[in-house]
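Hey, I'm writing a tutorial for new members on how sequence and structure tokens pair up, and I'd like a real worked example in the thread rather than a made-up one. If someone can provide the structure for the chain below, I'll link this post from the tutorial.
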Amino acid sequence: MKTIKISLLIIAVVLLFSACGKDSGKEVKLLESITQGGETTKFEYDDKNRIVKKGSATISYKSDDLVIIDGSEYKLNGNEIIANRGGSVDTLTLEYGFITSIMPQDALSGSGYTFVDGNLDWNGSEGGNYKYKYDDKKSPFNCNTPKWVIQMILENTYASKNNVIEVSYNDTWSEGESYQRSYQYEYDSDGFPTKQMIGTETIATFTYRKGKKVEPEAKTSEAKTAKTQTSPSLVHAVEFNGKTISIAGFRPANSREDENIIDSLSFAYDGAEHTIRLPLREEQGPWYFDVSVNDYNFDNYMDIAILSSRGVSNQVDEIFIYSPKTKSYSRNNKLSDIMNVWVDKETKTLRSHVKGGHAGLLYESSEYKWEKDELVMIQSENQDYDDASRQYIRITKTLKDGKWVEKRESSEDGINFGDGCPGNAKLPVILWNVKFEYDNKNRIVKIGATTIAYRSDDLIRVEIRDGEEARTDIIDFAINGNTILAEYFQLERSELLRYRDYVMTVNKDGYIVKGTYYDCGNGDTTCRNPVGVDTYQYQGGNVTSKRSESEAYTDPYSGVTDEKSENVFEYKYDNKKSPFYNSNTPKWLIQYLSDVQYVLGTVASNNNVIEKNAYGDVTSYKYEYDSDGFPIKQTIDGAITTSTYCSIKEAK
């Protein structure tokens, strides 16, 4: 078996199904020999159809927890195997029968493996990695031998349920070592391979014999392991193409029932049952039950995204593409490495916008399209700050006729992105470099990593996530006429803390006229200790002034104390349309996210702020507009941000 070194930080996602293929009737076909390079290796089996001899090497199953392979001891302990191989003690991680990592004693790195739909999908190291593709035929090892044993005595691909047809190797240390190799097969009448070829050259032949069919004991053992490793499931319903799919998330062993963490997913789709098993990981922390669906490759089938990590503005998902041919999911490595993937169904492209520093003025954007089954970048845009010239530099690269065309601009060039998308229901999909998403009623449902859920006419939930601090702010809005109660909660590692209330009064136009903060600290569950008040004045649908008064306050979460203060903010406006002129998002909610949480910026009014006076410090805003009067470029003290609009069907 080839051993490959890999960092323990590898994220391996394992899709697990049946242990070995089944044949009907009372007989099963067992591999008798493999001939490679002029040498023949023969196999012998016990009365349970487990391999006990491979050539001269012997395998002895002493108990359910101890296997001896050619003199080396393998002791099973839950999802780990301690392997004592000639004085070297290695730790093997076992996930539903497959080895997903091997860590030699006292080593800083080991071997990592990812299995998808019962096939080895990927394995690699600090020096390189392998990627595999398979046919839909039966593997030669139609037996009851534990999969991890097959991995230890043979090449890892023989533990797969199908036959490898392509191997791609990527060397990350040396140049010129990467390659791709394809294999062809001849099969017998039962669908088992009898010959493996590279082109017309035969590199391996397989012979078989009949054996008595025996139900595998490993299946019962693995079922028990799965039961003990998970506690009662969480359920999340998703919508795709008008259908509701229930996705169950299973908690790890020893987790509490109030924890929102999982180690596996299970769901039914397209007439098949699907399971996604998530590996244990230490550096990144546990997996949270945050699953979404989309059609990432535009084939009208449901693909799955599982949140891997999330910061204030950026997130990474593990993305699995569905194959209707094999009725199975496979992790798309390239997509899973892209941050903030956004699906543009109209252009059938995928976009990414990664927000950096300078309040998002530093960023990287990219656009991709599918060419057959390969995801290809067609445009990239990078904006950085040049200290020497004190200018923002934007470099745009576009793929034209197979060649990259580069354009370089600076913030003094007056960068213009054009008029955006035409339409009476124009809404910003990227506003000042932040991505927005909407529901079918033209209401905002996502702003960067912030999500908004309209649970009923009287209840709205906003979740603001900070993946770097493993913290989520949850705000529930209870609407009662012109009074709205906002309850603040902080979720840290599944511990929910209510720490503040904000009671708002709205006017007949739906704007906040007064908001009062109440402290929930020191065990005060009634949250009726006022610590601050915001009051607003309006003219023509625009906030002209905001007065904020606060008492001395110690945040129960951070322990930071704010002194008593009083501040006044004054605003002036242009006569053009605000970016959310066509949005059906409640005005008070846009105002709240702008003035209280600072998620949106100054966009709560009907028009656009051109001057802001805060603490006596005046900030000027300049805009460029499209033909419909919407702002497409904003300049603040020489710093440029842009917006892009898309035509969305006007909601009734």
